[in-house]
């Protein structure tokens, strides 16, 4: 099941064909490691790529309640969320270093699980704490 969903992610990434060094996959990294499934892709991109995507007309600003209430910038297309920054609470991700230190899996850059866990800790919902446990167990065994 997880493998199958990973194939979906892989197909989508091949279609997106974003330039190397300009992005890192955030949501989806647990799936890439075979930890659990994901329903869509969240991709953190450089300001440069964000601008390009915004101007391409193929994405629209997300108008969900959370984005509207917090003025969060996020571009959406079919099953893909594009983020210009990655931060919540006390976690402030540095895009450049997250890209540089990404785990390369099948040629695609995924955020380091340790970083993802730090972010999830700030989100702090039961689902996030569950994910942190899954990540910690995974890292212990791999
Ligand atoms: Zn939104």
Short synopsis of the structure:
The protein has 142 residues and is an alpha+beta fold. The chain has helices spanning 2-16, 29-32, 47-56, 65-70, 95-100, 113-123, 126-141, and strands at 23-25, 41-45, 60-61, 75-77, 80-83, 87-88, 91-92, 103-105, 108-110.
Strand-helix topology:
Elements: H1 2-16, E1 23-25, H2 29-32, E2 41-45, H3 47-56, E3 60-61, H4 65-70, E4 75-77, E5 80-83, E6 87-88, E7 91-92, H5 95-100, E8 103-105, E9 108-110, H6 113-123, H7 126-141
Parallel strand pairs: 2-5
Antiparallel strand pairs: 1-2, 3-4, 4-5, 6-7, 8-9
The structure holds zinc ion (ZN).
Write out key terms for the chains shown.
142 residues; Beta Polymerase, domain 2; 5-stranded mixed beta sheet; two-stranded antiparallel ribbon; 7 helices; 19% strand; globular; binds zinc ion
Describe the structure.
The chain is an alpha+beta fold and 142 residues long. The protein has a single domain (2-131), classed as Beta Polymerase, domain 2, CATH 3.30.460. It has seven helices and nine strands, in the order H-E-H-E-H-E-H-E-E-E-E-H-E-E-H-H. The chain has helices at residues 2-16, 29-32, 47-56, 65-70, 95-100, 113-123, 126-141, and strands spanning 23-25, 41-45, 60-61, 75-77, 80-83, 87-88, 91-92, 103-105, 108-110. The strands form three sheets. Strands 1-2-5-4-3 form a five-stranded mixed β-sheet. Helix 6 (113-123) packs antiparallel against helix 7 (126-141). The chain starts with a helix and ends with a helix. The model has no long low-confidence stretch (mean pLDDT 92). The structure holds zinc ion. Zinc ion binds next to helix 4.
């Amino acid at each position: 099941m997880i493998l199958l969903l990973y194939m979906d992610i892989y197909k989508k990434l091949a279609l997106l064909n974003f330039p190397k060094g300009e992005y890192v996959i955030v949501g989806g990294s647990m799936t890439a490691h075979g930890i659990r499934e994901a329903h869509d892709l969240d991709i953190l991109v450089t300001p440069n790529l964000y601008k390009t995507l915004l101007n391409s007309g193929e994405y629209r600003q997300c108008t969900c309640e959370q984005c509207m209430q917090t003025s969060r910038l996020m571009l959406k297309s079919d099953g893909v969320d594009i983020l210009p920054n990655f931060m919540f609470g006390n976690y402030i991700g540095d895009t450049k270093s997250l890209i540089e230190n990404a785990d390369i899996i099948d040629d695609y850059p995924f955020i380091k699980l340790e970083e993802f866990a730090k972010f999830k800790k700030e989100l702090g919902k039961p689902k996030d704490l569950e994910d942190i446990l899954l990540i910690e167990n995974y890292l212990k065994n791999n």
